Amino acid sequence: MKLATYREGGRERIGLIHADNTRVFDLAAAAARDGSGNPAFASMLALIDDADAGLGAAHDLFARRNGDGDLSLALDRVELLAPLPRPRQMRDCMSYATHIRQSGRGALALLAEAERGEDAFKKALAAPLEELAPIYRQMPIYYITNSMIVRGPDTMVAWPRYSKVMDYELELGMITKRSRANIPVAEAGAHIFGYTIFNDFSARDKQRVEMQGRLGPAKGKSFDGGNVLGPWIVTPDEIGDPQRLKVEVRVNGETRAQGVTENMLFSFEQILAYASQDETIHAGEFFGSGTVGNCCGLEIGRFLKHGDVIELEIEKIGVLRNTVVRQD
Q: Domain range holding 48?
């Protein structure tokens, strides 16, 4: 199933995407008509909290009522929101060796540009890549990011005023179900509610300076609209192997990168097992995979400009589209 959060007539609803991703089926309205008003359809978090029972109820309801034409709306008649507008927690990982190595070189290139100009930037960007630090193979590396700044598809992301270097990042996102600590790897798949696309917008110049403090990004990542999710959540049965999905980045219609979600240093199951060590992972939390190799401007030396339209596409999920606008 593809599950979306949307606004229609001033009301926030959740629905099931169907008809080749052109229509959304109103789950709460359908349940009311079916005479079985279900609190699981009040919001995406409520559905996640109901776990498999909620998903089963949604599947059965659609099977019975999808012929009721007035229970579905064309997507162009509603406002798609982030499928999970307020995750209970957000963690973002560093799972792709290519991105880790190339982004490290890109950060050095930004430093060279700040100190010596554009020619130094180009020279640094062409330098040989450093080897992957052993720590990235020893354990999943992640940081906790801001769950209060989430936006959805087709929103305009305001470029933070303190930054001159704005960047996109294509990531596969995973949402949890059930709540538990000390999850065994073999059981972690049962704690995955679904997958979505994550654009981890980054103010690279601010991030470069902050990372010298050896604590992690702050304002380089945390600004209103900086965490974008969408266009919907796809359940695992439709995804299959999440490390076999083709991806593509387009800016203003130009393809900037293509790739596959393969070769994560640690799978989402392994990441869940690690993160849950003596820590309860709650239903409705979000984990980002980390950026797929070549799928951000820092790796290739091409950043965003005012008015750029960014499209991130992941096979079996869809397209997440946003526009960045300067505030000055």
A: 2-80
